[in-house]
Design goal:
The protein is an all-alpha fold. The chain has 2 helices and no strands. α1 packs antiparallel against α2. The protein starts with a helix and ends with a helix.
Length: about 70
Amino acid sequence: MQAIAASAAGIANAINRFDASAQRTARWGSSVGGDVDLAQEAVEMIGAKAALKANVQAMKTADEMTGVLLDIIA
């Protein structure tokens, strides 16, 4: 069950990273935006997306392993 909890925390972290990058990107070009490096934000969004996918896959694998274990016990 620790794998599922760790994956859930990783998913939340990836969503927060993506949201923060999207907010910074949305401020680009405005007077409030300051210096927004669009290339850096694109890389951050790609990294957050990859982290999200990896954590979802880890959660699916942990769920499958739990199911197999329960099938063995039953």
